[in-house]
Structure formats: structure tokens, C-alpha cells
Amino acid sequence: MFVARRDLRFAKGRFALMGSVVALLTMLMVLLTGLAAGLVDDNISAVRDLPADHLAFDATTGVRFSQSVVDDATVATLAAQPGVSDAAPLGNALVNGTGPDGAGIDLALFGVEPDSFLAPTAAQGDGLGGADGVVISPTLADKHDVGIGDTIHLDRVDADLQVVGVLGDDANYGHVPVAYAPIDLWRRVTYPMGDEGTDKATLVALRTTDGFDPTAAGSASDTTVVTRTASFAGSPGYAEETGTLTMIKCFLYLIGAVLVGAFFAVWTVQRKPEIGLLKALGASNAYLLRDALGQALAILTMSALVGLVVSLGLGAMIPNGAPFAFVPGPVLLAGAAVVALGLLGAAMSVRRITSVDPLIALGGAR
Amino acid sequence: MTLDLTDVSLTLGDGADEVRALDHVDLHVAAGEVIAVVGPSGSGKSSLLAVAGAMLTPTSGTILVDGVDLGAIDDAARTRLRRERVGFVFQGVNLLPSLTALEQLLLLPHLDGVRPATQRQRAAELLERVGMAHKADRRPHELSGGERQRVGIARALMVRPAVVLADEPTSALDQARSAEIAALLADQAHADGVATVVVTHDPSILDHMDRVLTMADGVLTERTPATIR
Ligand SMILES: Nc1ncnc2c1ncn2[C@@H]1O[C@H](COP(=O)(O)OP(=O)(O)OP(=O)(O)O)[C@@H](O)[C@H]1O
Ligand SMILES: [Mg+2]
Fold first, then answer.
1. Is A280's CB within 8 Å of B88's CB?
2. Could you tell me which chain A residue has the CA closest to the CA of B79?
3. Contact yes or no for A145/A104 (Cβ under 8 A)
4. How far apart are the first and last CA of chain B?
5. Least buried of A46, A308, B46, B71, by fewest C-beta within 10 Å?
6. The pLDDT value given to residue A194
7. Binding pocket residue ranges, ligand 1, CB within 6 Å
8. Are the beta carbons of A304 and A339 closer than 8 angstroms?
9. Tell me: the pLDDT tens digits for B48-84?
10. Residue in A7, A280, A364 nearest the CB of B55
11. Which protein residues have a CB closer than 5 Å to ligand 2 (ion)?
12. Longest dimension (CA), chain A
């Protein structure tokens, strides 16, 4: 990097310009990554944190939280399948009600059997027990100022949810906070017409061991069995949200690679006489490529680091409650991807170093 | 440390633009000999240096640099030979804009994998000899044309080459300085046994040359002493 290092210093204005573009791009990537993680949290964190490894949905509806219906018979059939150590019904419904202050509240009601492995552990107050008692996500407690002892009234079905406990971690589903209710309460709310629906639930949550075969278990019980992670896509809007963000990120990576590539293409062309001279002086292609890529790597890394630091600062200023979460892994990965793709773009451009003729160093028309 | 060209021809361009830049050239420069090549513009002088310096492959003929046949080695070996055995002074002076005068010289050992720090002494000495020691830390844009030319000459001597090929090394210098530079090249050639070819238009430096050859339309001929000047 004898020459490359000195070029960086000598043409620092030009490199700073490119560097700031890369830094801004990194910031955008980091913020988008935070937004993506935040949206995912907002959408399916309650499903993600379920203590089950597989979920079984009604085979006719497939993996759709809003449509699937199973009954106790399905739970029993699945419980008897090889490799299934536990099976429990889970009811899932989006409801709206009124808080103690009269304000409207949207929430996701998760109905579970209070003695099953799905029963939530309350960080404050009590767990599920009483007929009307619910355990709520701290996000509900924070956002709507609902606390233990308060009542949430569900107007449409004229039911009362008694808050008895608050979960330790945020639990959201479909961008609204989750309230865990005993499955009987859930059934009353979801099927208000009486006895007809008393043993129904949305899906069956499973805890399995090595010998478990999802396909076999599914066909035996007339369900579609997927891993917990695969079920996320069954949440309304999840695929669209993550798909959109992934597409934006892909475009940004592409733009980054093209921009860096374009910069180094222009830089390489401008430097052609110097490259010819270096070759005339006996620099090999390998040496010149190493020099140029080292230079690109240095400027990319520095800029990405600056972008990372600035965006972490910005992220700290984002108000609580916005769908935004900093997960170090994906954030670092985004930074590394900006550098890697930038380097790829640079590599495409500096390739043409190899075709520069040392003869141009002799000057004249050559 | 010799340079031998035997029956070398070079055709440039193609079709109607075809130019015979070198026409059956024979040139033998002994170790420690410094020769001048003079001739009109476009006669093939730079082409001669290009083939001798392994930058251009002749259409026919044999070139030996320090006994190594350029036609018998591959591109990588030619690049290496350029780096280690050939000192070039370019016609258009050719310095790297981001490097100081001293660094222009230190670059060469660096290209060869030698830690530049160990070569500082020699680089400083060479700059001293071309009268540039006091401007060692200046970059090319802070130097005059003549000063740049002197740095270029110091650079050509940096790696202790077997062959020095200088293309108009004194074109931007005044007479006194030209004579000094010619003397420097000649001294270096005599002292270290370097085979040196100087292409020039400058009659004032011919006194320092052991031989003078004339290039015309790609044909190289020896001048008899009587025809010099
Ligand atoms: N790439 C090229 N293609 C075609 N012809 C070329 C090329 N390069 C040089 N020539 C021609 O080759 C001939 C020799 O050129 P050369 O540069 O060796 O001349 P020169 O003696 O160094 O001239 P000057 O004193 O002006 O530097 C000229 O006629 C020139 O036009
Ligand atoms: Mg010339």
C-alpha cells in the first residue's frame, strides 16, 4: 500500500466524498435492519417466544393464524404421534376493547390451557388461574397504562378481562400487544354463540423429540405441521413486511456496490498514466491489484465504521414504542455486507488495471 | 552489465498507418559505456528504448539485457527484469503525484519487496547528487520541470541497474545543469559498469558520451568522430 496509502491522503477530498456516501449507506442499512427487527418483534415476538418447536394448523386452511381451526380431538391425535412429547391447543384472535380510562385497546388474545406448557410465566402478579384472569405483555401495560387489577372490557362480546399478571418480555402479535387468557375465556370471546365451539382452538403447539416426523404427524391428524420459525409467514402481513424490507436492503446493497464500483472505475481511469508508470517501473499486476483493493477496503471499512457509530447514536434517539430494535448480529452483518459488496464493486472496476500498458509511461502518442 | 540488440526490427500500427519504427537495428553497449542516440523527432528513438527496456516486444531480432534474452522469458520475468535491472528516465518525466521526491525513489525498493526504510540513506544520497536534497519532501506539483527531471534521473539510478535508458533526460534543464546531469550519468556508468543509453537533442551533453549514434527512419548508424556536432 505504498502508493495507495499516499493517494488516499493526497486525494482525500475525493475519497471523503465516496466515504461519506458509504457511511450514509451504512447508516441507512443499520436503521433498516433495526426497523426490520423492530417490525418482526412487533409482528410475531409472541409466536417466536412460544415454548413450542412445531405448530400444527388446520390442513384445509394451511399455515394461517387468522383462519386455522382445530379441536381437542386434533390435540389428542397429535399428542399420540411418535416423537411428540407435549401437545397443547393455542387460540389466537385479534380483539378490541376498552381500558379502564375508556380508551380503545387493540390486543391479541392468546388462549392457552392454564396447566399446559404454553401457560405464561408472569414477571409481576399471578399467572393464569381464575376464569377471567389474563396475563398481559408489558407493552400493553406501558402503552395504555393498564396494570394489575384493571379490567379490559371487550365491548362486542360484552366480556371482561381481569389483568392478573404482566409478562417479563414484550409479547406482540400482528403489531398489537398480547394478552394470555385461559382457553375457556378465549373460546367464550371467540365463539360467543355458546356451546357450539367449546373445544375449538386455532392451532396445536407441539414439543417434540428427535423421532418426530412433521409430515406423518400432519397427515395422521389432518393438519399442516411446521416449525415455529416457518409459522411466522402465517401471520398476516409478515411475509409482505419482511419481503419489502429485504427487497429494499437488496437494492441498497446493489446501489452500494454499483456506486463504489463507479467511483473506482473513474478513479482507475484517471490513474491510468500512473498505473502505466508503475508497470514500467516493474510493478506486477498482482501488486497493483492488491494495492487498489487494499485502498478500497481501507476506505470502505473506515466509512462503514463511521456510519455504524453515527446510526447507533441516531438509534438511541428513536422514541420508545417505535418498531425499532438493535440486534448486534444483523447490524454488524449489514455493515460487513456494505464493505463486502463495495469491495466486490471495486474489484470489478480495478480489474482493468491489468490491461494498462506500461508503454504509456513513455509518453507521446502511445 | 551489457545491452545487446541484434538485428532488431519493430513495426508499429497496422494497414496504411504501418510504421517501421526500428529497421534492423544492431546496438551493443558495453559495461560502463555511455552512448548517445540522436535523431529527428519520430525517428524511433523512444521505440529503441522501449524494446531495450522490455516494454515492447520487437517484431524480430534478439535483445539481451545483462545477458538475459528478453524473447526467452515470460511477461512476469520481463516485469521483474524491468524492476531490478533497468533504470528508466522517461521522456515526459513521470513522477507519481502523491509521492514526495524522496518517496519516488523509495518506491522502487518497495516494489522489490525491500523495506524502504533501509534504503533511505541511498535515496538521500542520490537526491544530493542531482542537487535535490533540499526539496526531498516536495511533491511533483511543488517542483519545476527541471527539478522533476532530476528526481526522475535519481530514481533511475536507485536500484543500481545494469542498464540505464534515458529519454531526453536534460530537455528541461539549463546548459550548466544539463552538463552536470550528463556527467552524473557518465560517472555512474563508468563507476558501476552500467550500460547507459541516452536519447538526446542536446548537443551540449555529447562531450560526456563515449559514443554517439544517429537514428533516422528507424535506422541506427554510428557517427564517426568527425561528424559529431
Ligand atoms: N502506437 C503506435 N502506433 C503507430 N505508430 C507509432 C506508435 N507509436 C509510435 N509510432 C510511430 O513510430 C515512430 C517512432 O516513434 P518514436 O516515439 O520512437 O520517435 P522518437 O524518435 O522518440 O521521437 P521524439 O523525438 O519526438 O520523441 C513515429 O513515426 C511514430 O509516429
Ligand atoms: Mg521519443
1. yes
2. A282
3. no
4. 29
5. B71
6. 66
7. A 364-366; B 12-13, 17, 19, 21, 39, 41-47, 91
8. yes
9. 999 999 999 999 999 999 999 999 999 999 999 999 9
10. A280
11. B 46
12. 97
Residue A236 in grid coordinates: 398476516
The SS3 assignment for B30 reads coil
Q: Mean pLDDT, 10 residues at a time, over chain A (366 residues)?
A: 91 91 91 86 90 94 92 92 93 91 90 93 87 90 86 88 91 92 91 74 93 91 93 88 89 89 90 91 92 94 94 81 79 90 91 89 58
In angstroms, the Cα distances linking B193 to A63, B1, B197 are 86, 6, 13
Judged against a pLDDT cut of 60, whether residue B228 lies above it is answered with no
Tell me how far CA of residue A340 lies from CA of A266, A287, A289, A344, B189, in angstroms.
20, 21, 16, 6, 50
Cell of B136: 526531498
SS (H, E, C) B111-141: HCCCCHHHHHHHHHHHHHHCCCHHHCCCCHH
* Per-residue cell: A335: 455493515
For chain A, list residues whose CB is within 8 angstroms of any CB belonging to chain B.
Answer: 2-3, 6-7, 9-11, 273-274, 277-284, 287, 358-359, 361-364
Q: Do B90 and A281 touch (CB under 8 A)?
A: no
Give per-residue pLDDT as tens, A46-64: 999 999 999 999 999 999 9
